[in-house]
């Protein structure tokens, strides 16, 4: 049950992404540091081996100049070995040079010599050194892992090299691991604090809002709604509280009106005029309820749309963890090839881009919903760009539009910056588009909707067209009347175009006209005067 909660759906993917990022960062950083250490150590000990080789070369050249090579060769070799032993074996050292003579016997080594030849003569690593003569690789000596680097002195057929304990070679890598562990603990602590902050200021208030909305839907209008969080959540809480109070007020008023009408029906005809006025008020409240229902549909549509990218994100992260575990096992076992590692990098990059695209898609949905929802409950003027805002409205209706085969085109050659009521425009275009979907086209019928804008003096002209069924000539004069509908059997209320008419004529001080021929679609011309003074 916890997996269905918003906290789990949001925080668990974030935690997995961060921890995966830390592991990837550690893996890449450790590998890079190890490569750097290997390169530096190789250069350093190559120079040291070359120094010994140069010393031997100098001795060899002196021997040649005596012209008594056979007589003095042994003495020169002994002198060279004793000199190296004096320099490098003056005390117990962890890093030491070694020399194998032409008989492949250790003549310079802290433990091995000619007397204990049997101890190492059958050793696999010893045979490997003799066979390759020059190179570097890891070996194990007396239970200690070491790295050896060696070269061949061909004048005397000697092998000269160094043996370095791996613990000493990678000492700085161990230091990095300790520091990285401390950094990881600090990051986890920071993430924990961030999660506490997110839960306290965002997710918990959203869950409380959900609970309060459920209470209202179940008829509980008595409990107080007081939820603190971010600015947007507080505003949404206040809007929900206002809506609850309005519903409660409407219910109380309707109950009072019913009681009043029961008494007024027994009175004179003059009192019937008051009943008509009361009915007009009831009509206004139904129009307001229709607006709220439109907003409720918007909420349901956005919630449905968010499920798809969130599901893709979770699937991508799960796949990433699987391939990461597989490549880690291959690396640990030494079976990983360069091609497999490149495939892993490419797949990781693809998954990261896929996750990034769906996170951006989710954020876009939330932004569109927030802007349109706030505007529909807020009747204040503000500056906005109409073409961009219309695209946001259409995006918020994506859950409905994608179930049809209708193409919506916006024809605007330049930006339409206006100072007006964005909520009013959102309601107008929402109702027009939904009206076309419900009335103009059969299910899955291919069709198109075109919306264009043009400035004329201080007026904004809006043309809305669809190529659907059209409207009968006899019905055209009544389409803006309240409760007039030709689709009542499919749930039509007859309030959609009436709401548009009232918004345009009353709030925007404009006009709307409709022209249509049956079978040739419909055209709405909306003219709105623009007051540039704020």
Beta content: 15-25%
Strand segment count: 12
Sequence of strands across the biggest β-sheet = 2-1-5-4-3
Amino-to-carboxy terminus distance: 51 Å
Shape descriptor reads: elongated
The name of the CATH topology of the domain at 378-529 is Heat Shock Protein 90
Structural class: alpha+beta
Count up the helices: 13
Oligomer: single chain
What does the average pLDDT come to? 76
CATH architecture of the domain at 378-529: 2-Layer Sandwich
CATH homology superfamily of the domain at 378-529: Histidine kinase-like ATPase, C-terminal domain
The CATH class label of the domain at 378-529 is Alpha Beta
Low-confidence sequence ranges? none
What value does the Rg take, in angstroms? 41 Å
Order of helices and strands: HHEEHHEEEHHHHHEHHEEHEEHEE
Fraction of residues in helices?
A: 55-70%
* Major sheet: 5 strands, antiparallel
Short description:
The protein is an alpha+beta fold and 534 residues long. 61% of the residues lie in helices and 15% in strands.
Can you tell me about this structure?
- With 534 residues, the protein is α+β, with helices and mostly antiparallel strands.
- Among the domains are: 35-169, PAS domain (Beta-Lactamase), CATH 3.30.450; 378-529, Heat Shock Protein 90.
- The chain contains 13 helices and twelve strands.
- The protein has a five-stranded antiparallel β-sheet, with helices on both faces. Strands 7-9-10-12-11 form a five-stranded mixed β-sheet, with helices on one face. Strands 6-8 form a two-stranded antiparallel ribbon.
- Helix 8 (270-333) packs antiparallel against helix 9.
- The longest helix has 64 residues, at 270-333.
- The chain is elongated, with a radius of gyration of 41 Å.
- The mean pLDDT is 76.
């Amino acid at each position: 049950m916890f997996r269905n909660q918003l906290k789990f759906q949001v925080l668990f993917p974030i935690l997995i992404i961060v921890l995966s990022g830390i592991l990837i960062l550690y893996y890449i950083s450790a590998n890079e540091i190890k490569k750097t250490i290997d390169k530096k150590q190789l250069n350093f000990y190559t120079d040291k081996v070359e120094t010994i080789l140069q010393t031997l070369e100098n001795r060899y050249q002196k021997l040649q100049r005596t012209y008594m090579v056979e007589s003095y060769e042994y003495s020169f070799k002994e002198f060279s070995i004793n000199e190296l032993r004096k320099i490098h074996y003056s005390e117990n050292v962890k890093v030491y040079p070694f020399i194998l003579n032409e008989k492949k016997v250790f003549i310079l080594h802290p433990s091995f010599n000619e007397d204990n030849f049997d101890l190492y003569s059958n050793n696999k690593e010893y045979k490997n050194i003799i066979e390759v003569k020059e190179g570097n690789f890891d070996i194990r000596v007396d239970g200690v892992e070491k790295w050896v680097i060696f070269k061949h002195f061909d004048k005397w057929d000697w092998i000269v090299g160094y043996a370095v304990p791996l613990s000493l070679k990678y000492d700085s890598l161990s230091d990095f691991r300790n520091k990285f562990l401390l950094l990881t603990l600090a990051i986890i602590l920071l993430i924990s604090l961030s999660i506490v902050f997110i839960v306290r200021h965002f997710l918990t208030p959203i869950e409380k809002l959900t609970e309060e909305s459920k209470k209202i839907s179940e008829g509980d209008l008595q409990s107080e709604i007081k939820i603190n969080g971010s600015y947007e959540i507080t505003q949404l809480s206040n809007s929900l509280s206002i809506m609850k109070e309005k519903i409660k007020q409407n219910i109380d008023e309707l109950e009072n009106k019913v009681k009043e009408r029961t008494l007024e029906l027994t009175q004179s005809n003059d009192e019937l005029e008051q009943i008509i006025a009361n009915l007009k008020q009831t009509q206004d409240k139904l129009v307001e309820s229709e607006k709220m229902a439109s907003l409720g549909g918007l909420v349901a549509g956005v919630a449905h749309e968010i499920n798809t990218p969130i599901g893709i994100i979770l699937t991508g992260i799960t796949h990433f963890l699987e391939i990461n575990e597989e490549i880690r096992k291959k690396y640990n076992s030494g079976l990983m090839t360069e091609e497999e590692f490149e495939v892993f990098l490419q797949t990781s990059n693809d998954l990261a881009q896929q996750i990034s695209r769906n996170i951006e898609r989710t954020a876009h949905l939330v932004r569109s919903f927030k802007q349109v929802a706030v505007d529909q409950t807020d009747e204040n003027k503000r500056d906005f760009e109409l073409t961009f805002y219309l695209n946001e409205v259409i995006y918020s209706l994506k859950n409905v539009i994608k179930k049809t085969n209708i193409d919506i085109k916006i024809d605007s050659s330049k930006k339409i910056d206006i100072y007006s009521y964005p909520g009013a425009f959102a309601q107008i275009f929402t109702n027009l588009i939904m009206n076309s979907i419900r009335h103009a086209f059969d299910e899955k019928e291919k069709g198109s909707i075109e919306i264009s804008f043009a400035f004329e003096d201080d007026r904004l002209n809006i043309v809305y067209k669809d190529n659907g069924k059209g409207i009968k000539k006899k019905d055209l004069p009544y389409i803006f009347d309240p409760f007039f509908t030709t689709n009542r059997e499919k749930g039509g209320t007859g309030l959609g175009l009436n709401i548009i008419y009232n918004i345009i004529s009353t709030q925007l001080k404009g006009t709307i006209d409709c022209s249509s021929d049956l079978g040739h679609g419909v055209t709405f011309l909306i003219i709105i005067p623009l007051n540039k003074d704020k």
